[in-house]
Specification:
The protein is built from 26 helices and two strands. The protein is mostly helical and 648 residues long. Helix 3 (73-84) runs antiparallel to helix 13 (328-334), helix 3 runs parallel beside helix 14 (342-374) and helix 6 (146-176) packs antiparallel against helix 17 (409-442).
Length: 648
């Protein structure tokens, strides 16, 4: 075994771990001892540990509160599927694809997914599983940047309210889908209204006529009013409030026992929506003209690849689709067994997410092709008119399209909104799990049901804001300023922390220690340079709003825009606040020394198991000695980081 003084170093050393500075204290092990340690690590990788159980209390008799674990690795996989495959795929992907010309959007989206989405998804999974820490505590690797994790948790709190509100609207539509005829298919005492069941296109910005589906959503569901005119957002709709309460009861029941209950629910939440998607896909293939829409989605328009807006939309969609840089992926993987094959899971989930987005796109564009055929127009012209922002595509364009179907309208409506509800339920449980993990990392002895109950009550109360007559305007502001802009800012800082401050080379060594596999040059280059540069360019462009964004903001009261900037500041300011706090807690002399010390990992950084952590500390010291022995030239370090095989 490793000499006992290694563990003492971990427990009593000041809040900095620097193997190079600690070279004089390093205890070397004999080859025989190291072989025994390696064999023990092999057993840990094979899963021979009590940490496979979902218990939160250690089994060594110490009474220490230990992090809960998934009951089975498949529960983690399905929970990540339920989290990532949700609103971003079914709601946002078809809408963004329509707004950016179908096939013109597909190539940039796939490129961004390959160079940004998958590397970040794998990176976040690695950091969560290796450290068994949530999205705040994972910054024990560099306490100076802990504000990034706090900011990501605040973003989840903001998303918590409007995601559940959108979910409640889908419940209302699901209930109404059992009515015959569909309540939004015909106009009821509305002027300048055209029945949605009529086979004609009325989504024309130059026309004063609007489809009955739009009137139904604005007047019957949301009772929409402009906050700029009324000066207030109004009061919540009572029917939607009941639907919202139902949604939060479902979320609370699923999460009442933590991941032990949510892991079981994932079997249904992740799998059943695919059954509905396949049923819808089969039905779409029977529609006349469906292939016209599908070909429009899959046919690239090469000239639009040079359009900045298309690439910007691709990056934003990638983030929403995979749910990266929000802390949820880190939290979910932190409940894994240390030896779980995270590389396999990351590849499965990222490709499955892409497949689901394409599947949803095929269904939506297939319906669009059918409508284009029966209304004697083209899919391209139809896509220009079917680009309502916000919730418009889900609750206006989709219902209008369903009302135009010649057969099976109610079946289509029930299946679609049931699928939308289940996907949203999976996304919302992931959001709550992330917030609960942040609280329990700070207060580990709190019972799961208490934290879940408090978060659910807060989520219900905040969700009421978005089901008021002016709620959708508030939703757009919170989403634009509090989520989209802040996510891009924090993900840049996350990459800087993980890949530059902690280091790509050390991450790759951690992967080798945890999984026994080497990291290829593709991942090293993406983590070290490519991913950061692509996001940085989009981040710069995001501060220059396009004409449509300027036009939409002009319709909002200045107070609401100011509120949006305050949300942005509230999230981003966490970074300097927590950095100042981390520096102030240091005992070193001199500001520079304090900053350097605060940027290094804490002494307990590493695997959760004390035995595995001792092996890890020994491995880190061994590598530090080897690095000192061969010298530390800048060129050599760069080569070692990007392609270690050439540095030997």
């Amino acid at each position: 075994m490793v000499n006992e003084c290694n563990l003492n170093d971990v427990l009593v050393r000041p809040n900095t771990y620097d193997p190079e500075a600690d070279g004089d204290k390093t205890t070397t092990t004999t080859p025989t001892t190291w072989s025994a340690d390696t064999a023990m690590l092999g057993q840990l990788r094979d899963g021979a540990t009590a940490r496979d159980t979902p218990s939160e209390v250690s089994t060594d008799g110490s009474g220490e509160v230990r992090r809960a674990k998934w009951g089975h690795s498949i529960e983690f996989l399905l929970s990540c599927v339920a989290l990532s495959v949700g609103f971003g795929n079914v709601w946002r992907f078809p809408q963004v694809a329509m707004q950016n010309g179908g096939g013109a959007f597909m190539i940039p989206y796939l490129i961004v997914l390959f160079l940004v989405g998958r590397p970040l998804y794998y990176l976040e999974m690695v950091m969560g599983q290796f450290s068994s820490r949530g999205c705040v505590k994972v910054y024990d690797m560099s306490p100076l940047m802990r504000g990034v994790g706090v900011g990501q948790t605040l973003i989840m709190v903001l998303i918590l309210g409007f995601y559940s509100a959108v979910l409640s609207i889908s419940v209302r539509y699901l209930i109404e889908s059992f009515s015959t005829p569909l309540p939004w298919a015909r106009c009821l005492n509305a002027t300048n209204c055209v029945d949605s069941e009529k086979l004609e296109i009325v989504f024309n910005p130059t026309s004063s006529h609007r489809p009955s589906a739009e009137y139904y959503f604005d007047q019957n569901i949301m009772h929409s009013n402009s906050t700029k005119i009324t000066g207030t957002i109004g009061t919540p709709d009572s029917y939607l409030a009941l639907c919202l309460l139902f949604c939060w009861i479902c979320i609370t029941v699923i999460l009442i026992r933590g991941i032990r209950s949510s892991g079981k629910a994932a079997y249904f939440l992740a799998i059943f929506p695919y059954v509905i998607l396949l049923v819808l896909l089969i039905q779409v293939f029977t529609l006349q003209g469906a292939w016209d829409g599908i070909f429009f989605l899959l046919t690239p328009q090469w000239e639009k690849l040079l359009t900045v807006q298309v690439w910007q939309a691709a990056v934003a969609q990638c983030f929403f689709s995979l749910t990266i840089s929000l802390g949820a992926v880190i939290v979910f993987s932190s409940y894994n067994n240390f030896s779980n094959n995270i590389y396999r899971d990351a590849m499965i989930i990222s490709w499955l997410d892409t497949f689901t987005s394409l599947l949803s796109g095929v269904i939506v564009f297939g319906i669009a092709g059918n409508i284009a055929r029966i209304t004697s127009t083209t899919v391209e012209e139809l896509s220009k008119n079917m680009t309502l922002g916000g919730a418009g595509l889900t609750f206006v364009t989709y219902p209008d399209a369903i009302a135009k179907l010649e057969a099976g309208r109610n079946v289509f409506a029930v299946l679609f909104f049931l699928m939308f509800f289940l996907l949203g339920l999976g996304s919302n449980t992931g959001i709550v799990t992330t917030i609960v993990a942040g609280v329990k990392d700070r207060y580990p002895k709190l019972a799961d049901w208490k934290v879940v109950a408090v978060v659910s009550i807060f989520g219900f109360c905040s969700g009421l804001v978005y089901i008021t007559p002016g709620g959708l305007e508030v939703l757009d502001v919170v989403n634009d300023f509090g989520v989209e802009m802040t996510v891009l800012t924090l993900v840049l800082l996350e990459i800087v922390t993980f890949c530059w401050m902690y280091g790509v080379d050390r991450i790759c060594h951690d992967i080798k220690f945890m999984l026994g596999i080497s990291t290829g040059i593709f991942w090293r280059i993406c983590w070290g340079f490519v991913t950061f540069m692509m996001i940085f360019i989009i981040w710069i462009l995001s501060f220059t709003p396009n004409e449509k964004t300027i036009e939409n903001r002009a319709k909002l009261p200045s107070e609401l825009i100011t509120f949006g900037w305050c949300l942005f500041a509230l999230v981003v300011v966490q970074v300097p606040i927590w950095a100042i706090y981390a520096v102030s807690k240091r005992t070193e002399t001199g500001l520079v020394n304090k900053i350097i010390a605060a940027s290094r990992p804490t002494p307990d950084w590493g695997p959760e198991s004390p035995t595995t952590q001792m092996l890890y500390k020994t491995d880190v010291r061994k590598r530090a000695e080897e690095k000192r022995a061969r010298g530390n030239t800048i060129v050599h370090n760069v080569i070692e980081t990007l392609c270690p095989s050439f540095s030997k």
